[in-house]
Amino acid sequence: MRSHKRTGTVYLVGAGPGDPGLITVKGLSAIRTADALVYDRLVHPSLVDEASAGAERFYAGKAPGSVSIEQEEIQDLLIQLARRHERVVRLKGGDPFVFGRGGEEALALREAGIAFEVIPGISSAIAAPAYAGIPVTHRALARGFTVVTGHTCRPDDLPDWAALARASTLVVLMGLGKLDEIARGLIEHGISPKLPVAAVSCATTAQQETVRGTLATIAGACAHLEGPATIVIGEVARMHDDLAWFTAAGPSIDRIRTPFPEHIVALSA
Ligand code: SAH
Q: Which of 115, 173, 191, 215 could form a disulfide with 9 if both were Cys (CB 3.0 to 4.6 A apart)?
């Protein structure tokens, strides 16, 4: 009887928040040695270009609000690719397990008997505040931080949020379109309208923009802003006023962004 060829491994790789230089060494190595690459909308094109010429590439991007490839189709694609290839990379923006549906993909792979590894990435939940000069925790201002999605936000979700906002910094992903609702809800639940807020869009890229305001003013101030944006709600948001450091045109950023170091070699098997 002929023995079956072993299936390959799927690497769930975090691409980082935007600047391709913020991928991990291990993540970059996985891309370079991939036989197939399935990547998302917010992944920088130059990271996709790091794959070898012979690698199969699949765009699995989902533009907000538009019809696109379903999550189940992506999972099926990963399974099919792993049956044909040794190394399949699933490249996702930020960290694959922070609102990236990486958990669902890992479960589907496990169920199909496909081996997988997770290569974490720098999440925009931390990188966007950092690039705006906002530490998510700071002595005397915030002892912790909570990362939530604004996407599924409903008015009846907000009481919990208000409790969280009293205790720690709130970092909201996918919240730009709901900013007005979120801010009003928090104020209605007793949070001061003067609480500092910052919205950081296109963080770590040349298009980065930070808008500062308070719970009362932030929605109006962000009317012009395009996503992706990370919202920081809490006393630490005002530290942007003193600590903003990132200028997209700055020479230090240009120097470290490209090219990638060539000596980064293949992942050990
Ligand atoms: N897994 C990703 C998050 C996916 S959800 C991560 O860990 O970063 C997508 C949301 O992430 C966007 O709606 C936005 O809130 C945030 N985001 C992604 N890239 C961003 C960027 N460059 N600047 C600011 N926010 C970003």
A: 115
